[in-house]
């Protein structure tokens, strides 16, 4: 597999946390490095399996995708949609200013 | 009195008016008030709603209009959206969330007249094998070792469901199973649980963990009870494109078929190294019970079994990292205020997710990230194809498989907590069936040397839950499992 057996680099831990939009405290990086490193070491046992000529399986579902009728089935639910909003203004969700 | 009833006998008592739904519901609410401070199986109890539903059920019963679940008090794992009742997935990030809609599974149960007692505890976002990862505290197993009162885990992730049903706080409960989250807690708590075929129950309105694996299913104290409840939960739903348009069979009738003439496979790869002798012996005993009732036992091989867990711990976190991207502090759930949007996302998600969920999101992000995708995620999908092929081939030779449900009985809170991989090994026997999407049931079959329950697992073909119920009922009959947990409502209470 792509990664070596060397421990996960702290920079890699920080990079994936940034991709996942989760702020990490500095003291968490070392622990996650160990934990994720041990999980990755363990899943590398899949290196033993010969998968040549095998197609990847994304979904075992037996349902075939079908199209439903192109009609409106729901709507006019602004209050229900916004009922759980942590912050709102009229019929809108609000977030901190994005564009100056 | 709650443990004197099964779902089936309570239904009969209601229909013959020997008891009212209000009485039955009050008895269960009293059990919850007495036991839940010790067990912590519930996140939310809804007594007013339950009594209102009970009164409506009594009125319906009075008119002779009884549905399959009319007036029966049951409880719901807190990952099923329930309209107007908060649904947390045991996560801080969803703590304030009150769904404006009902999941399809719980809608089906309400259509059939069920009374909902409340929402049950779980590992946060259903990620765990012990229900110790809940943001609202661990659930305690109602069973204890004979020689010690140390608190044991109920299994997970549906630990609240299993503990509530085993102790008599609910007649039955819903759960979800992604890698064993119904079967393993059922085994640890001495009750029955079935994960049906992927596609049998709608996932609409269930908080998503790993969408290609998540499947809802019932817990009950008998095989028949799970057959009754699954019959209500299941069915095609246009709102979930992976739910399958097939008629729901009569699972209760299927449970009475017997096993005469069935071929039962024993997968040799499930003889895990270091398996306790008593689990090995119980497995052999289970095969004997089926043989005595007319089944033929056949040795079979599922050669990729040992890779199931590692495959699962790539696929499930990958899907989870994608599914949980929606928790951003903008539209619902927790928000940590910040000065810009990126900080708002990062601070909200740092504060809202627990350690195991964070670990899995990061794992999933890693295996999906540029440069690693082919090596991990694509490879795992290919191994998954081989695992499915193992099952497809073996089911041309046998009608069902029998294995242990878990490699041990319930362990103490805090055990296995130092190393995530050690905790993951609890799911070694349940994960392969999840990867293949086939149905699996755990049936309580005996006690270990400490007096703790052990389950056997029955696996069947896609959409052949009927055979799984037949085999499960045969095991139940032979095992005559009558054990009761130490923490329960006393007789007459």
UniProtKB/TrEMBL annotation, chain A:
Q: Under which main EC class is this enzyme filed? A: ligase
Q: Which InterPro entries match?
A: Asp/Glu-ADT_sf_sub_c, GatC
Q: What is its EC number?
A: 6.3.5.-
Q: Which UniProt keywords apply?
A: ATP-binding, Ligase, Nucleotide-binding, Protein biosynthesis
Instruction: Please give the coiled-coil regions recorded for this protein.
Output: none
The record ties this protein, via SUPFAM superfamilies, to: Glu-tRNAGln amidotransferase C subunit (SSF141000)
Gene3D superfamilies, sorted: Glu-tRNAGln amidotransferase C subunit, N-terminal domain (1.10.20.60)
UniProt record, GO biological process: glutaminyl-tRNAGln biosynthesis via transamidation; regulation of translational fidelity; translation
Top-level taxon of origin: Bacteria
Any one GO molecular function term: glutaminyl-tRNA synthase (glutamine-hydrolyzing) activity
Instruction: Please list the reactions this protein catalyses.
Output: L-aspartyl-tRNA(Asn) + L-glutamine + ATP + H2O = L-asparaginyl-tRNA(Asn) + L-glutamate + ADP + phosphate + 2 H(+); L-glutamyl-tRNA(Gln) + L-glutamine + ATP + H2O = L-glutaminyl-tRNA(Gln) + L-glutamate + ADP + phosphate + H(+)
What's the stated role of this polypeptide?
Answer: Allows the formation of correctly charged Asn-tRNA(Asn) or Gln-tRNA(Gln) through the transamidation of misacylated Asp-tRNA(Asn) or Glu-tRNA(Gln) in organisms which lack either or both of asparaginyl-tRNA or glutaminyl-tRNA synthetases. The reaction takes place in the presence of glutamine and ATP through an activated phospho-Asp-tRNA(Asn) or phospho-Glu-tRNA(Gln).
Q: Which PANTHER family match?
A: GLUTAMYL-TRNA(GLN) AMIDOTRANSFERASE SUBUNIT C, MITOCHONDRIAL
Please describe the quaternary structure of this protein. Heterotrimer of A, B and C subunits.
> What family classification does the UniProt entry report for this protein?
Belongs to the GatC family.
This protein's name: Aspartyl/glutamyl-tRNA(Asn/Gln) amidotransferase subunit C
Instruction: Name the species this protein comes from.
Output: Acidisoma cellulosilyticum
UniProtKB/TrEMBL annotation, chain B:
Domain (Amidase): residue spans on this chain: 23-468
Q: Name one GO molecular function term.
A: glutaminyl-tRNA synthase (glutamine-hydrolyzing) activity
Instruction: List the record's Gene Ontology CC terms alphabetically.
Output: glutamyl-tRNA(Gln) amidotransferase complex
What does it catalyze?
L-glutamyl-tRNA(Gln) + L-glutamine + ATP + H2O = L-glutaminyl-tRNA(Gln) + L-glutamate + ADP + phosphate + H(+)
Q: Which domain of life is it from?
A: Bacteria
The EC number(s) attached to this protein equal: 6.3.5.7
Which residues does UniProt mark as catalytic? 77, 157, 181
Q: Which UniProt keywords apply?
A: ATP-binding, Ligase, Nucleotide-binding, Protein biosynthesis
GO BP, sorted A to Z? translation
Write down the top EC class of this protein. Answer: ligase
PANTHER family per UniProt? GLUTAMYL-TRNA(GLN) AMIDOTRANSFERASE SUBUNIT A, TRANSAMIDASE
Q: Which family does it belong to?
A: Belongs to the amidase family. GatA subfamily.
The entry's function note states: Allows the formation of correctly charged Gln-tRNA(Gln) through the transamidation of misacylated Glu-tRNA(Gln) in organisms which lack glutaminyl-tRNA synthetase. The reaction takes place in the presence of glutamine and ATP through an activated gamma-phospho-Glu-tRNA(Gln).
Task: Give the record's subunit note.
Answer: Heterotrimer of A, B and C subunits.
Output this protein's name: Glutamyl-tRNA(Gln) amidotransferase subunit A
According to the entry, what is the taxonomic lineage of the organism? Answer: Bacteria, Pseudomonadati, Pseudomonadota, Alphaproteobacteria, Acetobacterales
Gene name linked to the record: gatA
């Amino acid at each position: 597999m792509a990664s070596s057996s060397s421990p996960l680099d702290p920079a890699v831990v920080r990079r994936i946390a940034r991709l996942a939009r989760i702020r990490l405290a500095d003291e968490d990086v070392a622990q996650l490095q160990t934990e994720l490193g041990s999980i990755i070491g363990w899943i590398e046992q899949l290196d033993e399996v010969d998968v040549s000529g095998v197609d990847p399986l994304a979904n075992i579902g037996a349902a075939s995708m079908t199209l439903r009728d192109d009609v409106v089935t729901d709507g006019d639910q602004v209050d229900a949609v916004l009922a759980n909003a942590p912050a709102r203004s009229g019929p809108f969700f609000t977030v901190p200013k994005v564009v100056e | 009195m709650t443990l004197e009833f099964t779902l089936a006998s309570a239904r009969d008592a209601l229909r013959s008016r020997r008891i009212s739904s209000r009485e039955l519901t009050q008895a269960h609410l009293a059990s919850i008030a007495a036991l839940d401070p010790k067990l912590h199986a519930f996140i939310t109890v809804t007594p007013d709603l339950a009594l209102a539903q009970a009164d409506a059920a009594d009125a319906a019963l009075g008119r002779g209009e009884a549905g399959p679940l009319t007036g029966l008090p049951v409880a719901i794992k807190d990952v099923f959206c329930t309209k107007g009742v908060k649904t947390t997935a045991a996560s801080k990030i969803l703590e304030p969330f009150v769904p404006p809609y009902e999941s399809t599974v719980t809608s089906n149960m309400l259509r059939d007249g069920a009374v909902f007692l409340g929402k049950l505890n779980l590992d946060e976002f259903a990620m765990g094998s012990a229900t110790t990862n809940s943001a609202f505290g661990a659930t305690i197993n109602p069973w204890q070792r004979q020689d010690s009162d140390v608190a044991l885990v109920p299994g997970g992730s549906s630990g609240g469901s299993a503990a509530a049903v085993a102790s008599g706080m609910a007649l039955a409960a819903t759960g979800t199973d992604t890698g064993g989250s119904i079967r393993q807690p059922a085994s640890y708590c001495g009750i029955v649980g079935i994960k049906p075929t992927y596609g049998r129950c709608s996932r609409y309105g269930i908080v998503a963990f790993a969408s290609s694996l998540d499947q809802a299913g019932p817990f009950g104290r008998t095989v028949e009870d799970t057959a009754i409840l699954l019959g209500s939960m299941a069915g095609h739903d246009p709102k979930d494109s992976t739910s399958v348009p097939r008629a729901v069979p009569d699972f209760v009738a299927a449970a009475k078929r017997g096993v005469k003439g069935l071929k039962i496979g024993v997968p040799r790869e499930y003889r895990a190294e270091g398996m306790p002798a008593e689990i090995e012996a119980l497995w052999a005993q289970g095969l004997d019970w089926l043989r005595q009732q007319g089944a033929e036992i056949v040795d079979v091989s599922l050669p990729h079994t040992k890779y199931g867990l590692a495959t699962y711990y790539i696929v499930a976190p990958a899907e989870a990292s994608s599914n949980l991207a929606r928790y951003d502090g903008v539209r619902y759930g927790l928000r940590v205020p910040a000065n810009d949007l990126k900080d708002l996302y990062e601070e909200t998600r740092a504060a809202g997710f627990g350690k195991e969920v964070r670990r899995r999101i990061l794992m999933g992000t890693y295996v999906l990230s540029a440069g690693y995708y082919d090596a991990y995620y694509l490879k795992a999908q290919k191994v998954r194809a081989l695992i499915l092929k193992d099952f497809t081939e073996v089911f041309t030779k046998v009608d069902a498989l029998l294995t242990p449900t878990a490699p041990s009985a319930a362990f103490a809170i805090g055990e296995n907590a130092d190393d995530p991989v050690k905790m993951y090994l609890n799911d070694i026997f349940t994960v392969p069936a999840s990867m293949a999407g086939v149905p699996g049931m755990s049936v309580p079959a005996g006690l270990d040397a400490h007096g703790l329950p052990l389950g056997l697992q029955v696996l069947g073909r896609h959409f052949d839950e009927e055979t799984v119920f037949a085999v499960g009922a045969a095991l139940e009959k032979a095992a005559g499992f009558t054990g009761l947990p130490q923490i329960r409502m006393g007789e007459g209470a």
